[in-house]
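Suppose a colleague, Dr. K., hands you the sequence of a protein chain of 70 amino acids and asks what its three-dimensional shape might be. Before reaching for any lab equipment, you can write down a predicted structure in token form. Begin with the sequence itself:
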Amino acid sequence: MKISEFKQIIDRLAQSPISRDSDVCVVVSEPSIGATATISVKTIGQGFDWNHGKVMIFTEQPIIRKKGKS
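The predicted structure, expressed as tokens, is then:
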């Protein structure tokens, strides 16, 4: 996803009275009974050096990719 696409979605959500002041979260791929498992977003920043050209989302808790099957 490019930042322009992300902005269009965020702008649309920000105009909705339902989602205007909602928490921003990342969906976590793990079993959950009830609500979808998520981790809160702490901040968003622009990458530099090796991460140049990326917008990076930092979460409140670490997200670790499992080794092995994907």
